[in-house]
Design a protein that fits this description.
Layout (H helix, E strand, L loop, with lengths): L1 H9 L1 H37 L5 E5 L16 H8 L7 E13 L2 E10 L13 E5 H6 L8 E4 L2 E9 L3 E2 L2 E7 H10 L9 E4 L5 H8 L1 E4 L2 H5 L2 H35 L1 H9 L4 H38 L13 H16 L2 H6 L11
Parallel strand pairs: 3-8, 4-6
Antiparallel strand pairs: 1-9, 1-10, 2-3, 2-5, 2-9, 5-6, 7-8
Helix pairs in contact: 1-10, 2-8, 2-10, 3-6, 8-11, 10-11
Length: about 350
C-alpha cells in the first residue's frame, strides 16, 4: 500500500473528485432507499400488523395477478377454505376506502373491518371506530368520544392509535359487520370479506382448490398490494441502475489511471515488485476512495434523513435504518471494487521490459 498512499497524496485532486462523485451517487442511493422504505411502509404497515402466515384472496379472472383491490371472498368460499385439513384459524378481513368527515374537516381513509377479538385494533362494538393519529388530526383533532361520519353513518371514536397505512391512506378500524354494511353501499352484492387472514396454514392447497381462491404468504402478500409492488419495483430499478453506474465510474477511472501509470508500474515490476503486490495496491487504493466517498454520502444521508423523519413526518415518508444506510454503503463499496477489478488486467499485463526501453 506504500505506492497507493503516495499516489493518493500526489494526485489528491483527481482522487478527491472521484470520491465526491461516489459520495453523490451514495447520496442518491441512500435517499432513494429511505424513500422506498418509507413509501413501502405507507402501503403495507396495516397488513403487516396482522402478522398473518397466509392471506387468502379471490382468484382473478384472465390469469391476472392476485391483489387486494379486486378481491372478494364469499361466506361459502370462506367456509370451504376453513374446512381444509389443518386450518385452525382464518379470520375474515374487509378492506374499503372512502372519505370521513367531522364538520367541515374531511379525510381520506382506509377501512379495515374484522371480528372483535381478531385484532387488538378492532373496536369493542358495532358503531365504534378506532382512528389512526393522522386521520384524527385531519378530522379536527378527533378524540375518544368524538363522532365522525363515514359512508353515510355516524361512528363514535373509541380510541386513537399510532398510524398504520394501506395504499398511502391511514387506516381506521371497524367491526366486520360495520364494514359489510359500508361495502353494501358501494355496490357490492352481499359482501362478506375482502380476504381471509390465516395464522395457521394447514393444507392451503386443498383449501384453495375447494374454495376456488388463492392463498399467498410472505413477500407475495405485500406484492398483492398494487401501490407497493409498483413503487418498490420502479424505485428498486433506479437504485440498481445507480449501483451499476457507480461500478462503471470506478472501473473507468481506475482503468484510465492505470493506463497512464503503465510506465511506473513497469518500473516497479522491473525493480522486483510482484504482480500480486501491485494488484493488492491497486484494489487498496480503490477501497480507500470508495470508503471515503461512500462514508461521506451516507453521513449526509443520515443527517438530512434524520431531519426529514423528525420534521416532515408522513409528508415525506422516509425510513432511516440499517437497511437504508449500511446496506447501500456495503453494496456500493462491493460493486465499486468489482468495477475496479476490470482495471487490474492492465496491471497484470504490464511488461517490465517496457521500463528498460525494450519497446523503443
Amino acid at each position: 500500500m506504500f505506492v497507493a498512499w503516495r499516489d493518493l497524496k500526489f494526485a489528491k485532486g483527481r482522487f478527491a473528485l472521484l470520491a465526491v462523485v461516489v459520495a453523490l451517487i451514495t447520496l442518491l442511493v441512500g435517499f432513494l432507499s429511505g424513500l422506498t422504505a418509507g413509501l413501502g411502509s405507507q402501503s403495507i404497515s396495516a397488513v403487516q400488523s396482522l402478522n398473518s402466515q397466509q392471506v387468502v384472496l379471490s382468484t382473478p379472472s384472465g390469469g391476472n395477478k392476485v391483489n387486494f383491490t379486486g378481491s372478494a371472498i364469499t361466506e361459502a368460499q370462506a367456509s370451504k377454505w376453513k374446512s381444509a385439513s389443518g386450518v385452525t384459524d382464518a379470520q375474515p378481513l374487509g378492506i374499503g376506502q372512502g372519505q370521513a368527515q367531522v364538520g367541515s374537516s374531511k379525510a381520506s381513509i382506509a377501512i379495515f373491518g374484522m371480528n372483535q377479538g381478531s385484532s387488538s385494533n378492532i373496536p369493542s362494538q358495532n358503531g365504534h371506530v378506532v382512528l389512526s393519529e393522522t386521520n384524527a388530526s385531519q378530522l379536527g383533532n378527533a378524540q375518544t368520544g368524538s363522532t365522525i361520519e363515514f359512508g353515510g353513518r355516524l361512528f363514535i371514536v373509541e380510541r386513537v392509535i399510532p398510524d398504520l397505512w394501506y395504499s398511502h391512506q391511514a387506516v381506521a378500524w371497524t367491526t366486520l359487520a360495520d364494514w359489510q354494511q359500508y361495502a353494501s353501499t358501494t355496490g357490492q352484492n352481499d359482501p362478506y370479506a375482502t380476504a381471509l387472514i390465516a395464522n395457521s396454514t394447514g393444507d392451503s392447497q386443498a383449501g384453495d382448490a375447494a374454495a376456488g381462491v388463492t392463498s399467498v404468504g410472505g413477500l407475495a402478500t405485500l406484492l398483492a398490494i398494487g401501490s407497493f409492488s409498483s413503487e418498490v419495483g420502479s424505485l428498486g430499478m433506479i437504485i440498481g441502475m445507480l449501483v451499476v453506474i457507480s461500478a462503471v465510474v470506478i472501473g473507468a477511472f481506475f482503468t484510465v489511471w492505470i493506463m497512464q501509470r503503465s510506465a511506473d508500474i513497469a518500473v516497479l515490476k522491473a525493480l522486483g515488485s510482484s504482480t500480486k503486490a501491485l494488484l493488492i495496491d491497486t484494489l487498496g487504493q480503490a477501497f480507500i476512495v470508495l470508503t471515503v466517498g461512500v462514508g461521506l454520502g451516507i453521513l449526509i444521508t443520515t443527517g438530512v434523513g434524520a431531519l426529514l423523519v423528525e420534521s416532515a413526518g408522513s409528508t415525506i415518508p422516509f425510513v432511516l435504518s440499517a437497511w437504508t444506510t449500511l446496506a447501500p454503503a456495503i453494496l456500493l463499496i462491493a460493486t465499486g471494487l468489482v468495477g475496479a477489478c476490470f482495471a487490474l488486467r492492465s496491471v497484470s499485463k504490464t511488461d517490465p521490459l517496457t521500463a528498460l526501453g525494450a519497446n523503443r
